[in-house]
Prior knowledge:
This protein is of the alpha/beta class. The protein contains nine helices and five strands. 34% of the residues are buried. Bound molecules: adenosine-5'-diphosphate. Adenosine-5'-diphosphate binds at residues 10, 32-33, 36, 53-54, 57-60, 65, 86-87, 89, 93, 141.
Amino acid sequence: MARLILFGPPGAGKGTQAVELSSRFTVPHISTGDLFRAAVSEQTALGVKAQGYLDRGELVPDELVIDMIRERLVQPDTQAGWLLDGFPRTVPQAHALDELLSSINQSLDRVVNLEVPDGFLLERLLGRGRKDDNEEVIRRRLQVYHDQTAPLIRFYGDRNQLTDIDGSAPVEDVTAAIQTALTAFFSQA
Ligand code: ADP
């Protein structure tokens, strides 16, 4: 049983590490970015509402994200744990997650914070070639991260729930560092 948040700026490698972690802990990987991109490509009601925000590198309004997560965390496959990737991304989202978890009698175990300097991120994101990865949109996403998302480091740090990992190291080293840190955490817990 593990309930984890994978946290970090755009381009930190959350998606890659999430695949490893979700298989290591056998918990579903819940990526809000993937869920939004799927909704946009299927042109669901949610996708139609979210599209403009994604295209501009802005955050989708909290309410839409929170509703989507609430639906996901009451599904049968998330009752034995989960790995959140890309959520929460604002302080109000983090408060909403707290309320949601307490209402379903669950609690968060750990937040893994992938630390990567901005210079690396810009280079990685430019190399990735996703639809929302042109330079202007990338710069906007980095700014939005610093303004709205980075405050969560303090939020979870103050509660002693944060594990900082150097996300600029090679992929396998990052994976190993996360697994070592989480194994140590769960063996004490
Ligand atoms: P990245 O790989 O750059 O971190 P994601 O795939 O996590 O990006 O998210 C892509 C886009 O989806 C974001 O730029 C944003 O528009 C939207 N999005 C994803 N998660 C959230 C969230 N928790 N709150 C608001 N918007 C979100």
